[in-house]
Amino acid sequence: MLDNRIIQNLIKIVGDENVATDNASLLSYSYDATPNFQSWPDVVVSPKTTEEIAEIVKLCASHNIPLIPRGSGTNLSAGTTPLYGGIILLMKHLDKILEIDEANLTVTTQPGVITLSLMEAVEAKGLFYPPDPSSMKISQIGGNINENSGGLRGLKYGVTRDYVLGLEFVTPSGNIVRTGGKLAKDVAGYDLTGLMVGSEGTLGVITEATLKLLPKPDTKKTLLALFTDIDAAAETVSKIIENRIIPATLEFLDRATLQAVEEYAKAGLPTHVEAVLLIEQDGKSEQVESDIEQILILCREQGAVEVRVAKTVEEAEQLTTARRAALSALARIKPTTILEDATVPRSEVARMVKAINIIADQFQVDICTFGHAGDGNLHPTCLTDARNKEEMQRVEQAFEAIFKKAVDLGGTITGEHGVGAMKAPYLHLKAGKHGVTTMKAIKQAFDPQNIMNPGKLFSDSDRKRVVISKT
């Protein structure tokens, strides 16, 4: 519980209407989208400017108060759960697109702008912001940057990091720093911009971002390839890439996911096959037609029993919307849905899919698999019930085995969800002992008091999922 004098100082900085200590507000921000992690903050503060944020950070630094930047809370690794109480710093007022610069192909934005709103704003000017996390209708740009979010278009266009040109952020001591800008090249000193992207709020508070834009593609085509053999579907992914075709989207869904999505979305998806590939290509019309024709041939050669090309824009959008609904669809089946991500080289997708199925059988848990197969980022999703403690132990064992297998195949424990608190016990699997030590040294240099989002990235124990009650 924070001293009342701290609360009064916060009110002086942001106004009484932007400081919440009531139980309903504290409960609302005691968790994010990660199952089975919960801890109550002491106060929720909604600043309006960078200068207000700097004053709040200075107050936290002077009193050793934890500070957790938060957007919409769609995080899936407990990255915004306030494990040690403190202040939730809510970005709802910093929600303005400051400039769309058509000459330099950039957009400058505050962190609280909804991802889809930014995408629509730049597309209205014939431009294109490619990163498209499935949560884009609700997630905020600041959260995307903190997590280095990916999305369905990651194969061809990359992830959030590839579009962040410059940042404004507040350091843990309360200083305001600006990095980068509307530049194609900038090697003046350490890459602080790159360091902040994906830092999960542990190194500072992002208050503004300058993002790279592209010309909007001329056209787009979508197809669905149906397979009765799940291995053939996974191997087709590698075959498409081997033939030097890079689709905008190359998604994989297994049968269990298909059934759940179709029941939820009513998109006309097939539920009698073992897997489907959802493939999109965009660009110049002639190139798109050529690529789609080659992909059709490759899918059939690899054993697809049917290949459907969307005949209208509406049909194509229905298919991609259905894919984005995978988590919502699966979440309806059992009380607890744990969506994970493990990434492997594209050539290892087939082996990883097989391994996930073997591991699910070994630990007797229900795991559905879908994901961005084109860039090797799979989402094994466990349907379980957190109230069943014995089953939850098996779930944890299964995911640990999945993470180890991904690393063994040259992959990583997370491709886009981040480490947060959920994967902190597994970070050493990818980074190694000395890698973790180096990361901790960076954290110590930036934040010696450990006030910025404490308990994330680095684990003090081997605990996995935790529930911390209100104190």
Task: Give a verbal description of the structure.
The chain has 471 residues and is of the alpha+beta class. The protein is built from 15 helices and 19 strands. Strands 12, 13, 14, 15, 16, 17, 18 and 19 form an eight-stranded antiparallel beta sheet that branches. Strands 5-6-10-8-9 form a five-stranded antiparallel beta sheet. Strands 1-2-4-3 form a four-stranded mixed beta sheet. A hairpin with a 5-residue loop joins strand 8 and strand 9. The chain is globular, with a radius of gyration of 22 Å. The termini are close together. The relative contact order is 0.13.
Give descriptors for this structure:
471 residues, 20% strand, disordered C terminus
Biggest β-sheet description: 8 strands, antiparallel
Distance between the termini: 8 Å
Number of strands: 19
Count of helical stretches: 15
- Give the helix level as a range of percent: 25-40%
